Amino acid sequence: MFELEKRDIKFLSGVGPQRAATLNKELGIFSLRDLISYYPYKYVDRSRIYAICNLDAHMPFIQIKGEILSIEHAGEGRQSRLIAHFSDGTGVIDLIWFQGIKYVEKNLKVFKPYIVFGRPSVFNQRIQVAHPEIEPAEELQLSTIGLRPFYMTTERMKRMNLHSQAIEKMMRSVIQQITEPLPETLTPELITEHHLLSLTEAIRNIHFPQNTELLKRAELRLKFEELFYVQLNILHYAHDRQQRFRGFVFGKIGSIFNTFYQQNLPFELTEAQKRVIREIRRDLGSGRQMNRLLQGDVGSGKTLVALMSMLIALDNGYQACLMAPTEILANQHYETIRSMLFGMEVRVELLTGSIKGKRREAILKGLLNGEVQLLIGTHAVIEENVQFAALGFVVIDEQHRFGVEQRAKLWKKNVQPPHVLVMTATPIPRTLAMTIYGDLDVSIIDQLPPGRKPVTTLHRLDSHRESLFHSIRRQIAEGRQVYFVFPLITESEKIDLKNLEEGYLHICEAFPQCTVCKVHGKMKAAEKDAQMQLFVQGTAQIMVATTVIEVGVNVPNATVMVVENAERFGLSQLHQLRGRVGRGAEQSYCILVTGVKLTDETRKRIDIMVRTNDGFEIAEADLKLRGPGDLEGTQQSGMAFDLKIANLARDGQIIQLAREAAQHVIETDPEGNSPHYALLWKQLQTLRKEMTNWSAIS
Ligand code: ADP
Ligand code: MG
After folding, report:
1. Closest CA to ligand 1's atom 23
2. Cα dist from 352 to 330, 336, 381, 632, whole Å
3. CATH class for the region spanning 456-612
4. What are the residues whose beta carbons fall under 8 Å from the beta carbon of 145, sequence distance 6 or more?
5. Is 82 in the pocket of ligand 1 (CB under 6 A)?
6. What pLDDT was estimated at residue 631?
7. What are the pLDDT digits (tens) for 515-542?
8. 255-445 and 456-612: same fold?
9. Which of 71, 289, 404, 474 is the least crowded, having the fewest Cβ atoms under 10 Å away?
10. Is 147:40 a contact under the CB 8 Å cutoff?
11. 374 with 346: CB under 8 angstroms?
12. Tell me, what DSSP letter sits at residue 538?
C-alpha cells in the first residue's frame, strides 16, 4: 500500500533536504500526505485565451496567443533588460525579462506561434508582462491544463525559488503517483448520503480540477470532512464530560429565591428572562453538570438572570460565585447585587486583587466555613488559596477576557465541578457558536426590558465638530453625561495616547464649564478607578476614554456616546460601545465621528450601525465583513483543529450539515465502540494527535 504519510517530502523529485527543511518550517509540510492537504487558494482558468485589444492591466492573469514581432535589448547594467514585442493581430504588448536574458534570447524565435501567460502591468501607457511563461503554441495542450492552481507561499519560500509553480509541480508529481484509491476518511454512508466525492477524487480535483463543477464538489467534500471532525470532536468531548462528571442536583426552590422574587424584585421579568431561568432550572435539577452560554444583548438583563440562578444554588445549601473581567465591573456587580438583596439574609462578599490583609483573610475564612454564600470578584477568586466549603454554581461574565484554562481552574474548586454559566453580550452567529462553543448549551435573551428607548445612531464628519459640540452642550445642560471614546491600537500606543491627550485638551477647552475625567489602559488601577468613580457619581459630566469602558460599565444617566475615529473600530466593538448608553429612561445617542474619505468596508460598517440596533444582525454582518479569524475571542476559544479549507463565515450550511451528521454518530454510538464507525473514531484520534492548539479543559 502506498502510504503517503510515511513518505518524507525530501525524497520527492526536485525537493531535496534544503527545500524540504523550508517546507517543514514554513508550512508544516513533512510528508506527502501533508503536501496533498495543502490546498490552492485560487485557480486561474487557462483554457481561456484573451485578445490583446481586450486586456487591461487590472486583470490578475492573462493568457494570449500570438507571435514575437521583434526582440530588443534596453538599458545598461542593472537596468538592462530584454524586450519582445508580441502581437496577436489585435494589438501589441511587451514581454520583458530582467534575468536569464541570454538563455531566453537563445530560445525565442520571431514569427513562431507562442502561448504567453503572466501578470499584466502598465509601463509608459503600454501593457507589459514581466517574466511571462511562454511556450510554443503547438506543444501546449490548454485543454489539459484547465484550471490552474495557485498556492500561497511565504517570502522565505520565494527567496528559495519555491514559488507557486514549484509547489504545483511537486503536487502534480505526487498526484500522478496515486494509482490506487487513498484510504477513505469518511464512512460510505456519509459519502452516499451527502453525495460526496471520494477522497481520492476530491484530492485530485482540488489541485487539478477537470472543470469548475468538479472543483465545487471537491471543495464540498473537503469542507464537509473538516467541519464534520470539528463537530465530532466537540460533541464527543461534551458527551464525555457529561459521562464523567455528575452535576449537583439543586432540586428545590427555597426561601431565598422566593423572598427575592416576591419582595425584592423591583420589576417584572421579561418573557425571555423567564424562559432562560426555566432552562437553567431544568439543567440544575437534571443531575448533569451544566455548561451553558447565556447570550443577550447589552442591557438585556443577564445579570439578573445570573443572580436568580445563583440564589437557587444558595437555596440548596451551596455557594455561588460570579467572576467579572475587571475590578471596576466586579465592584459594580457587587454594588448592584447587594442593593438587590437588600434586607435579605444573604452574605455577599467582594474579592479582588486590591482587597488585602485582614479583610481578605476574613473573606477567605468565611468561604471555607460556608458563611459567605455569594462571592463576587475578578480572577482573584480562582487563585489557589481561595477555597470554598461547597461551591455549586459559577457565573462568568463577559467570557472573552477569560481563557479556557482559567475556566478549567474553577472546576477544581469542589470535589465535583460546579455548574457553569458563561455570559456574553457579544452575540455570536449561530453557526459560529456551534463551532466555537459547540460544547456549551445556549440560552438567548432576545428581548430588552420594557420602556427602553432604542439608541439613535448618527454618523458625523469630524469637520462638523462645532455643531456636534453644540448638541452635546444641550444634553449636558439637561443634566446628562457624555462619553468620548478614542481608538486604541496596541502597535502604536504612543500615538494613540497622544490622540487621547489631545482630544482631552480639546474637549476641556470646548466645555470649560464641565468636569472632564479621563481613563485609559496605561493608568494604574487605583487612578483609573478614581477617574471612573468621578463619572459614576456624576461629579464629571464628560468621560474621555479608550475602549476600557467597552465592557459592562453601567451609568444610566449617560446619554451620549461619541466614538472618535469610528472607522478604526470593528462592528462588534462599536455595538458594545453603543450599549453603554440607552440604559436610562432618556433618549440616548451614539455618534460615530469619521473623516470624509471612507473605504467601502468602513462605510458598510457605519451604515449597519446607523440602520440597526439588533446585535445578532450586527454579529452576522461582522462575520461576513471580517471573517471569523479576527472575531474577538475566537483565538482563545479552544477550537480544536485549524481549518484548511472551510470558512466559518461562509460555510454556515455545511457547518449545519456536519453538526447533524456528527450528532447522529454520537447518538448511535456514544461509547465509540461500534465497528460501523471505527473509521471515524480512528480518524478523530489521528486528528487529535495532530492538532496544534487544542487547549481544552483537561
Ligand atoms: P446586561 O448585563 O445584560 O447588559 P444588566 O443585567 O446590567 O444587562 O441589566 C441592565 C439594566 O436593566 C439593569 O439596570 C437592570 O436592573 C435592568 N433590568 C434587568 N431586567 C429588567 C426587567 N425585566 N425590567 C426592567 N429592568 C430590568
Ligand atoms: Mg452585564
Report:
1. 269
2. 8, 16, 7, 25
3. alpha beta
4. 46, 47
5. no
6. 45
7. 999 988 778 878 888 888 899 899 999 9
8. yes
9. 474
10. no
11. yes
12. T
Atom of ligand 1 nearest to the CA of 397: 2
CA distances from 15 to 4, 160, 162, 180, 249 (A): 16, 11, 10, 24, 61
What are 324-366's pLDDT values in tens digits? Answer: 887 878 888 999 999 999 999 999 999 998 899 999 999 999 9
pLDDT of residue 328: 78
CA distance 306 to 292: 11
DSSP-derived secondary structure for 312-344: HHHHTT-EEEEE-SSHHHHHHHHHHHHHHTTTS
CATH topology classification for 47-145? OB fold (Dihydrolipoamide Acetyltransferase, E2P) (2.40.50)
Pairwise CA distance, residues 464 & 467, whole Å: 6
Q: How much distance in Å is there from the Cα of 298 to the middle of ligand 2?
A: 7
Sequence-ordered list of residues with C-beta below 8 angstroms from that of 299, at least 6 positions apart, any chain: 448, 449, 452, 579, 582, 583
Q: Are 289 and 416 in contact (CB under 8 A)?
A: yes
User: Mean pLDDT highest for which of 338-347, 432-441, 550-559?
Assistant: 338-347
Task: Please tell me if the CB atom of residue 615 comes closer than 6 angstroms to any atom of ligand 1.
Answer: no
Q: Where are the domains of the chain?
A: 47-145, 255-445, 456-612
Which residue's alpha carbon is nearest to atom 17 within ligand 1? Answer: 301
Query: What is the 298 CA–ligand 1 centroid distance (Å)?
Result: 9
User: At 682, is the secondary structure helix, strand, or coil?
Assistant: helix
Q: Which of 357, 361, 337 is nearest to 347 (CA)?
A: 337
Distance 445 CA to ligand 1 centre (A): 11
Architecture per CATH, domain 255-445, reads as 3-Layer(aba) Sandwich (3.40)
The tens digit of pLDDT for each residue in 81-94 reads 999 999 999 999 99
pLDDT of residue 401: 52
Q: State the CB neighbour count (10 A cutoff) for residue 219.
A: 20
Beta bridge partners of 376: 322, 350
* Chain segment 651-684, per-residue pLDDT in tens: 888 999 999 999 999 999 988 889 999 999 999 9
Nearest atom of ligand 1 to the alpha carbon of 306: 6
Nearest CA to ligand 1 atom 5: 301
pTM (predicted TM-score): 0.70
Gap between the Cα atoms of 465 and 308, Å rounded: 45
Quick check: CB of 41 below 6 Å from ligand 1?
Answer: no
Ligand 1 in contact with 419 (CB < 6 A)?
no
| Residue 273 near ligand 1, beta carbon < 6 Å | yes
CA of 186 to the centre of ligand 1 (A): 48
For the stretch 112-166, pLDDT in tens is 999 999 989 888 888 899 989 898 988 877 766 778 899 999 988 988 888 898 9
Taking CA atoms only, the protein residue closest to ligand 1 atom 27 is: 449
Task: Report whether residue 304 contacts ligand 1, using a CB cutoff of 6 Å.
Answer: yes
* Ligand 1 centroid distance, CA of 272 (Å): 12
Residue 54 exposed, middle or buried by CB count within 10 Å (0-12, 13-18, 19+): exposed
Q: Whose CA is nearest to atom 19 of ligand 1?
A: 301
